[in-house]
Amino acid sequence: MTLVADPVPERATRDTGTGGPPPRGIVSRVAGWLGSRLLRGALVVIALFWLMPVLGLLVASLRSETSNRADGWWTIFTAPAQLTLDNYRDIVSNDTILDSLWNTVLISVPATVLVVVISAAAAYALAWIDFRGRDWVMVTVVSMLVMPIQVALIPIARLYGALDMFGSIAGVVLFHVALGLPFGVFLLRNFFVGIPRDLIEAARMDGAREWLIFRRVVVPVGLPAIASLTIFQFLWVWNDLLVALVFADPESQPITVALQSQLRQFGSNIDLLATGSFLSMLVPLAVFFAFQRYFVQGVLAGSTK
Amino acid sequence: MAGIALTQLDKRYGDGTHAVEGLDLEISDGEFLVLVGPSGCGKTTALRMIAGLEEISSGKVEIGGTVVNDLPARDRDVAMVFQSYALYPHLNVYDNISFGLTLRKLDKGEIDRRVREVARVLDLHEHLERKPKNLSGGQRQRVAMGRAIVREPQAFLMDEPLSNLDAKLRMQMRAEIARIQRDLNVTTVYVTHDQTEAMTLGDRVAVMKRGVLQQVGPPQELYDRPVNLFVAGFIGSPGMNLVSATLRSTEYGQYSVEVGDQRLVLPDGLLARRPALAAYDGREIVLGIRPEDMEDAALDGAVEGAVLGSSADLVEAMGSDVMVHFPVEARPVVTDDTVELARDAGEPVGSRGVGSTVLVGRFSPRTRIFEGQQIEVRVDTARLQFFDHQTGTAIWNR
What we know:
heterodimer; A: mainly alpha; MetI-like fold; 2 domains; 73% helix; B: alpha+beta; Rossmann fold; six-stranded mixed sheet; 26% helix
């Protein structure tokens, strides 16, 4: 990484051309300076523009229902006094929202853990254990990646009906696991295949069985990929509306379904929606920051050569 | 500790490649055996079959008198040092070394004692807490060694363990490996393509070519009595000069070889040591001259019948020696073996065309030869080597 990073500051100092002979005129130097300033300014504008909806949501969640109905969220810049925590006070006493938030946890955590554990084990086998038909299993997994989730809704709904699982949290979790596995296996297998063969064989020579090689070598070395998968899968399940809408009954509905049911055709109770949405955003953010430290570059550094 | 025996060991791959062919080798307890050969000669495959990392197509591998063909690698109780070191990147030096011991559920105190002892021997005790990425190449190599040593296995298997180090470090580690192996007295099979490593480390050296064992013996024997052109050319640095020549007997019962229009007279004792040579009278043979067996005649004195005249093509002063390249008017030897050797060295075959061959002599640094100069080269005729032109085998007795 340093090899790539080093030349940049060097070139930057050369471009400003303070020390050298006068190869560049004052005009081009000013243009260059302006150019980099303009670029930075443009980036800031784009970033702010991107954040606008989130900002609006945050502000709306901090205003009372009456002010939200009266005018737009941007008026807080002129009248900051209207900010209030009342909405949050209301929502923590709203059982529907709290229950559904808890349901989201009950769905997301097992659906993520199961996908990560099963994918990792399957990916190890597909990458490092020789067995008959291994390539065909992999081809099947990849082909399942292209299947749209909507296609599976009706057949699975009928199956759940027959199995008397319809509406339960377990049903929602199982559906997410089934649909999350192909991507998980695909992602992890491709990462595991990149682990040097010598490393696996060294563990084998050291006396490790497959399970120990998996647990003590492949999983620690594969942590960046496993962390990515965890975040992907968790965000996907946490934010899912469609699957929960189809399979969850009111007792097991997650926050997305609960908020969606609050939408009204005319006007909206934006105070509840904005606050609920913001609460439900906090958890994925926390998960992201918890796992991002595993995205370290060069986990394999120093292993071979 | 235990000996290793390979009987008719064979490895065929699905695509028909015959990587190892009928390999018979007996490595006695505590012996240091080096498997050497150009890349693709099957030496690593043979080693991996001993390790249990490669399936055996046919034949038998015995470790300590037990046939281990169907035993998985983890149960063979041998340790391997990989060319790439293959250190566990997420573990520090201590955990890398102790990994195999913790898997064997050894007592914590015993593990600690052994790891610290090994770290002390390998001079790693100051780096036990470091991760592999924070170590130098030489230190990584020593951790890889430590991981093998600490297990106190029945045998060490080493797959080109020094090839990733620079020249100076390689010499240092070579000496260290020799010392450790001598102190521990553990049976060791060492794979390398570097003939210097093979000669300096091995109690015995086994030379392989395209999956077939060519010769196995103590290093000096391989140097003095190579069984064929391949071993002759592979062992020694620079390699033995090989040139087409014709054997002639003179009326006084003496023999000489004609190299182009020049002639080297064979000393009396030589025929006695190589009685089969007499049958080649008047026939074309391959003459082998080691660079070490040549000297600048200006220093050594020209002796009738032991001198080759030429002009110096290239003079390389090495400090301790001077390498002089000079052409002689004789056909170069192009056989299966020399083609294989040239391929390994990355040289074109018969670089000077059909009619002339470039020889390399290792002369004393006192020589005053310069490039383009007419030179006379004194040849130690007692140490000449002779090979059959068709089969490439050495001519000794039949």
